[in-house]
Design brief:
heterodimer; A: alpha+beta; Serine Threonine Protein Phosphatase 5, Tetratricopeptide repeat; 6 helices; 3 strands; B: alpha+beta; globular
Chain lengths: ~140, ~35
């Protein structure tokens, strides 16, 4: 964890004042709430509530990929989103990652075919997901 | 074996460390026993 993030834990009781302050800034009103925040303090990803280990791990990877996307690292983001689909194919993170991999590829190449190909992938995989609906407009 | 995580408990110090390391902050609002 420390290799990829700087982990900050704010406890509802032990750090009550900080919980109040940051909970207001980031609109965190429930625990556990876990955010991936870039060094400019922009929120890149949010996980609310408990998740089993693999689901949580896949969400953390999604946060890292979104952080790369947010700083314009579209090549790194695309590779990271694709890795999530391969590594955690049965998690909720996978269809979301498949969607954002297509967006990152489009941002990197400016080729609309990247979006059309992503829409085609959704017809084969994760066709019932919300992300398939979002991608359906692409082709 | 569970991974040992070295947590900051001061957000501003965490952000400074993140800036220096070029990493994102994982900000965890928790009620779990410390």
């Amino acid at each position: 964890m420390n290799a990829r993030f700087v982990p900050v834990r704010i406890h509802v009781k032990d750090h009550a004042a900080e919980f109040q302050r940051l909970g207001g800034i980031f609109d965190a009103r429930w625990t556990p709430t876990t955010l991936v925040v870039d060094p400019s303090s922009s929120e890149r990803h949010r996980i609310e509530g408990f998740l089993p280990k693999d689901d949580f791990a896949s969400q953390l990877e999604l946060g890292l990929a979104k952080a790369a996307f947010g700083r314009g690292g579209f090549d790194e983001a695309e590779r990271s989103f694709e890795a999530i689909v391969r590594k955690y194919p049965r998690t909720d993170a996978a269809p979301e990652a498949q969607y954002w991999a297509g967006v990152a590829r489009y941002k990197r190449t400016q080729d609309p075919q990247a979006l059309a190909e992503t829409a085609r992938r959704f017809r084969e995989q994760y066709a019932d997901s919300t992300w398939a609906k979002k991608a359906s407009v692409w082709g | 074996m569970a991974e040992l995580i070295s947590w900051f408990h001061d957000f501003d110090a965490g952000v400074e460390a993140a800036r220096a390391a070029g990493k994102p902050v994982l900000l965890d609002f928790s009620a779990a026993p410390m």
